[in-house]
Amino acid sequence: MAIGWLNVQSLMNKTEEVNAIIADRRLDVLALTETWHSSVDDLRLRLATLVDYAVVDTPRSSGHSGGVAVFFRRQMQCSQIPLPPLRTFEAICVRLTTASGPIILLNIYRPSTVALLASFFNELSSVLEVLVVFSCPVVVSGVLNIHVENPANDSA
After folding, report:
1. What CATH number has the domain spanning 3-143?
2. Taking Cα atoms as reference points, which of 74, 69, 125, 80 lies closest to residue 104?
3. How does DSSP assign 39-108, residue by residue?
4. Could you tell me which of 17, 21, 33, 152 has the fewest CB atoms within 10 Å of its CB?
């Protein structure tokens, strides 16, 4: 199975590029962050969906950035996994059934404009606790906006 991830920073003028990435790399699944879409009916998501693919998404809650989506081959069964209420980041979590068995994909976006507080780690822990009950591989993708390259950063 080929899974990709892309911080697209707006699908506005990039639907053709997203289609090309999926096709050129023969991806079965593509997770996107910062789609900048504000509605599940956003035309940009539909334009970026190839014929043999479907999409599940969480629109941005407010502001300029945000929004997450997962494109997947239609022959896969997909069910969205409910997550606890989130205030410090956006996420979408899906269970995909593939020929080799199920996988869980968690796609996260934490805006850099939101202060990194203990509540982020509490929420992330709550989300991960939801996933431990599934007995299958879990793939986590996304943008956390935590500068792990800085050894002085306690949050890293």
Report:
1. 3.60.10.10
2. 80
3. STT-HHHHHT--TTEEEEEE---SSSS--EEEEEETTSEEEEPP----SS-EEEEEEEEETTEEEEEEEE
4. 152
Token pair for residue 85?
């209420």
Rg of the chain over CA atoms, in angstroms?
Answer: 15
Burial (CB count within 10 angstroms: exposed 0-12, middle 13-18, buried 19+), residue 60: buried
Find the length of the chain. 156
pLDDT tens digits, one per residue of 26-81: 999 999 999 988 777 776 677 666 678 999 998 886 666 788 999 999 999 999 99
Instruction: Report yes or no: 85 and 122 within 8 Å, Cβ to Cβ.
Output: no
**Side chain identity, residue 111:** P
pTM of the predicted model, to two decimals?
0.90
Domain boundaries, the chain: 3-143
